[in-house]
Each structure stands twice: as structure tokens, then as C-alpha cells.
Specification:
- Helices cover 36% and strands 16% of the residues.
- It is of the alpha/beta class.
- The protein has two domains: 31 residues; 180 residues, Glutaredoxin, CATH 3.40.30.
- It has a five-stranded mixed sheet with strand order 5-4-3-6-7.
- It is globular and about 70 Å long.
- It starts with a helix and ends with a helix.
């Protein structure tokens, strides 16, 4: 019996290896691929969504926009065409959540700086205060890479409409009036079709790790 097994041991080893490979391939074939949700207004906490769009269940996308970045350049949705990007809302004089959020955006920038598919977009919620020179100084202080990350200012009402009606990111009911102030910790992941694919607490490191993971999951949709 031992001689029999000795004679065919290499055959048995080969069969075992092949069996492991086949089982692994079957497992990979049957394992469902991880895929991110496409968020519609009706799926999101109603407090974060303007009442005019809370009923929408499909086809929601980020609206066209025209804002000015830290270099004085006009930035529109065309600058993010065929890009995955992370959006947030901040202001340079904020002393509460914004510094942590910006630091975490810097961490994301470091991870995606050599990735041509991914960009960042930060909207000032105090655009009259956050002039182009102020944004430029703030961007330089934080080490912003201009080709990866736009910090934008512009028409306040447009920015507030984007926050409530496009990014579904803030609870405050401000409509961009002179005394309005919106404030949110949300980072929003947007895909190449301008659809929302995730929300993350920009003040928490574990949420940033999840965001980075989800970016990789999202990228696989385009492979």
C-alpha cells in the first residue's frame, strides 16, 4: 500500500493543488462583487434634503455649477467630467469641525495624488469672507495640490442650493440669504455619472478609511 502511494504521490499532490485552484475559482465566481449604493433623495434622511426633491427616487445627479477656485479660475462640472470626486462644505475661519475635516481631506489627497481618476472639491459656505486670496493662502497653508483639489467660492445661494438640492449634505434650511449659515461634517462621494455613492463623517478617521475603500470599490465599476 505504501509503495502504491509512493508511486503516485506526485499525481496526488498535483490533484490536490488543482482541486484547491478549482475551489478557489468557483468561490471567486460565486462571490458577489462589492458594489456601492446609488443614493437618491428619497433614500436620505429627510432633514438633509430640500423638500422640493424629497420624493425623487431615481436619476438624481449633481446639478451644473460655476464657481471660482483658489487660483481665480472658473470651475464647473466640466472640470469633473469622467472623475470620481469627494465634495465637502467648509469655511476658512471655522474653529470647530472644519480644521479636522480639512486635515482629513489632506490625508485623502495624499492617497489619491497620483490617481488621475479621483479629485476633491471643497465649497466655502462663507463665500464673501473666503475671497480668492484668502482661499489661496489657506490652500497653500494646507498643502493643496491645485490639479487635485479645488477650494471654491462664488454665489452663496448657488453653493447653498448645491448643498441641499444636489449633495444632500446639510440639515440647515438656509437658502443663501445674508444671515444664513450651513455647517456639515459630511464628505460626499460622487461617481463619474455625477451620482452620489456615499456619505462619510469627515471628522472621523475610521470614516475616512471607509471612504478610501469605497473609492477603490467604485473604481472597479469602470474597469
Amino acid at each position: 500500500m505504501l509503495q502504491f502511494f509512493s508511486k503516485f504521490k506526485y499525481l496526488f499532490i498535483t490533484l490536490c493543488v488543482l482541486s484547491i485552484i478549482i475551489v478557489s475559482l468557483i468561490y471567486q465566481a460565486l462571490k458577489p462583487k462589492e458594489r456601492l449604493l446609488v443614493y437618491e433623495p428619497s433614500m436620505v434622511n429627510a432633514e438633509l434634503v430640500d423638500t422640493s426633491i424629497q420624493h425623487i427616487r431615481k436619476y438624481h445627479t449633481i446639478a451644473p455649477f460655476e464657481l471660482i477656485n483658489q487660483n481665480g479660475d472658473t470651475i464647473t462640472e466640466a472640470d469633473y467630467k469622467d472623475k470620481i470626486y469627494v465634495a465637502d462644505f467648509f469655511f476658512t475661519t471655522c474653529l470647530t469641525i472644519c480644521p479636522k475635516m480639512t486635515d482629513n481631506m489632506v490625508s485623502i489627497q495624499e492617497k489619491i495624488k497620483n490617481d488621475p481618476e479621483v479629485m476633491l472639491l471643497s465649497h466655502s459656505v462663507t463665500p464673501k469672507i473666503d475671497s480668492v486670496p484668502r482661499l489661496k493662502a489657506y490652500a497653500e497653508e494646507k498643502g493643496v495640490i491645485d490639479t487635485k483639489w479645488n477650494m471654491v467660492t462664488g454665489d452663496k445661494k448657488q453653493i447653498y442650493n448645491l448643498a441641499r438640492k444636489s449633495y444632500l449634505a446639510v440639515k440647515t434650511l438656509g437658502d443663501g440669504g445674508p444671515f444664513d449659515m450651513i455647517h456639515t461634517e459630511n464628505f460626499v462621494l460622487v461617481d463619474k455619472k455625477k451620482r452620489i455613492r456615499g456619505f462619510y463623517d469627515g471628522t472621523k478617521e475610521e470614516e475616512i478609511e471607509k471612504l478610501l475603500h469605497d473609492i477603490e470599490v467604485l473604481k472597479k465599476e469602470y474597469e
